[in-house]
């Protein structure tokens, strides 16, 4: 599957050495929407691999990522994951999207301390009292939680020792230490954002850029899903007419609406 999506059309006909060499050059692995039920067989990917896209699959367990020690970016949104696990060894992980899963609890040791962007929207855990404050307190390095950037006020409310209001204003003076770059994310969206030294994010995937990309891809997925739904319902309606069956209740209710 990796070869099919990441190598040229004739790549699967290459000899083994050429395939392995090509796999070792891959930095972004995209295996979304493949009905994958288990994370496995990633050993042939090399140390250059930093981004892993596994959204919209059937994955229940986070596992077998030990071979990708340089991962900085993981999307596991819209799967069937119930527990955050097996991520502690990813010391360079910065971005973790586990939205739209079935996670009911988040323990302090579940997420690597290096993570600065965490998305858990659409999970049962987000409905618990004090979820947000507890998560901010447990992961003090976070800069963004559930698509919302965190301020020093947010962190103080969670009990963290952060700068006072006067020092908040000093943050604005740090622009001398920041470089404004043009961020390009999937979909062709560009944003000018400030990239601080030491963030660990490269110039193509920073805080605002990543968020914009996620929202854009989410909207695109929704639109594709709606198009597929409309196509299927249209086909069913045509079939009903062909078989001289009564129209669906959906059509009946629609026809009853005055125009």
Chain-wise SSE layout:
Blueprint: H1 2-6, H2 16-23, E1 28-30, E2 51-53, E3 73-75, E4 95-97, E5 117-119, H3 131-138, E6 144-145, E7 148-149, H4 152-157, H5 165-170, E8 179-184, E9 190-195, H6 207-242, H7 249-255
Parallel strand pairs: 1-2, 2-3, 3-4, 4-5, 5-6
Antiparallel strand pairs: 6-7, 8-9
Task: Supply the key terms.
single chain; 259 residues; alpha/beta; seven-stranded mixed β-sheet; two-stranded antiparallel ribbon; 29% helix; globular; disordered C terminus
Instruction: Please give the order of strands in the largest beta sheet.
Output: 1-2-3-4-5-6-7
Average pLDDT, rounded to a whole number, is 76
Number of separate strands: 9
* Alpha-beta classification: alpha/beta
Computed Rg: 22 Å
Biggest sheet descriptor: 7 strands, mixed
Model regions low in confidence, pLDDT < 50 over at least 5 residues: 175-200, 252-259
General shape:
globular
Helix-strand pattern, N to C? HHEEEEEHEEHHEEHH
Provide the helix percentage.
25-40%
DSSP strand content: 5-15%
Treating each run of at least 4 consecutive H or I residues as one helix, how many helices? 7
Distance between the termini: 49 Å
Structural commentary:
The chain has helices at 2-6, 16-23, 131-138, 152-157, 165-170, 207-242, 249-255; strands at residues 28-30, 51-53, 73-75, 95-97, 117-119, 144-145, 148-149, 179-184, 190-195. With 259 residues, the chain is α/β, with parallel strands linked by helices. It has a 7-stranded mixed beta sheet. A two-stranded antiparallel ribbon has the order 8-9. 23% of the residues are buried.
């Amino acid at each position: 599957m990796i070869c099919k999506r990441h190598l040229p059309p004739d790549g699967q006909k290459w000899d083994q050495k050429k395939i392995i060499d090509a796999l070792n050059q891959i930095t972004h692995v995209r295996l979304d929407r493949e009905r994958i039920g288990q994370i496995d067989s990633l050993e042939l990917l090399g140390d250059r691999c930093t981004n892993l896209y596994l959204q919209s699959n059937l994955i229940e367990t986070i596992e077998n990522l030990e071979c990708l020690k340089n991962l900085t970016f993981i999307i596991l949104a819209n799967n069937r994951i119930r527990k955050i696990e097996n991520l502690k060894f990813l010391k360079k992980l910065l971005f973790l999207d586990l939205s739209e899963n079935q996670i009911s609890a988040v323990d302090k040791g579940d997420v690597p301390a290096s993570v600065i962007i965490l998305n858990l929207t659409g999970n049962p855990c987000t409905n618990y009292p004090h979820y947000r404050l507890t998560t901010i307190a447990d992961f003090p390095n976070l800069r963004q939680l559930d698509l919302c950037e965190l301020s020093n006020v947010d962190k103080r409310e969670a009990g963290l020792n952060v700068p006072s209001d006067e020092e908040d204003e000093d943050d604005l003076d740090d622009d001398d230490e920041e470089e404004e770059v043009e961020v390009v994310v999937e979909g062709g969206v560009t944003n000018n954002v400030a990239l601080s030294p030491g963030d660990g994010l490269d110039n193509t995937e920073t805080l605002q850029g990543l968020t914009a990309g996620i929202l854009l891809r989410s909207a695109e997925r929704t639109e594709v899903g709606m198009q597929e739904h409309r196509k299927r319902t249209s086909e069913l309606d045509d079939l009903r007419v062909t078989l001289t069956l009564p129209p669906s209740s959906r059509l009946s209710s629609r026809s009853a609406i005055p125009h």
